[in-house]
Amino acid sequence: MNFIIRLLITAAVAYGLSATGILSGIHIPGYKQALALALVLALLNVAIKPVLIILTLPITIVTLGLFLLVINAIIILLADKFLSGIKVDGFWWALIFSILLSAVSSFLYSLVKPANK
């Protein structure tokens, strides 16, 4: 259930950032495509992101972890390549989108997260 809630929040935030015009370089035509994006991002974060983190560990250490933002942008660009309806205009849009998506979805998830008993 927790995974489904995270997917729905991520899809809502991604679609909201695209539809409201906050990020004009991100084009998500509908909520179904946003839900597909959230699912593909989840799969890429499980499968590809750990490999990228291990391969870029030295540069991540040198940049004090800031290179992880670049890895997140790369994951967004990979998701763009896998999904036909979604378009990201470039690396910088992917970087800004990944930062905003992470921040807003984390905030919203903290609001709806069930209390630990």
- Unreliable segments of 5+ consecutive residues: none
Residues in helix, %: over 70%
| SSE run | HEHHHHEH
> Rg to the nearest angstrom?
14 Å
What is the strand arrangement across the widest sheet? Answer: 1-2
Mean pLDDT: 93
- Give me the number of helical elements: 6
Class per helix and strand makeup? mainly alpha
Number of domains: 1
Beta-strand segment tally: 2
Name the beta content range: under 5%
Shape: globular
Note the gap between the termini. 16 Å
Biggest beta sheet summary: 2 strands, antiparallel
Protein described:
By secondary structure, this protein is mainly alpha-helical. The protein has one domain. 74% of the residues lie in helices and 3% in strands. It has helices at 2-19, 31-47, 49-55, 57-62, 67-82, 91-112, and strands at residues 26-27, 87-88. The chain starts with a helix and ends in a 5-residue tail after the last helix. The mean pLDDT is 93.
Itemize the secondary structure elements and their pairings.
Layout: H1 2-19, E1 26-27, H2 31-47, H3 49-55, H4 57-62, H5 67-82, E2 87-88, H6 91-112
Antiparallel strand pairs: 1-2
Helix pairs in contact: 1-2, 1-6, 2-5, 5-6
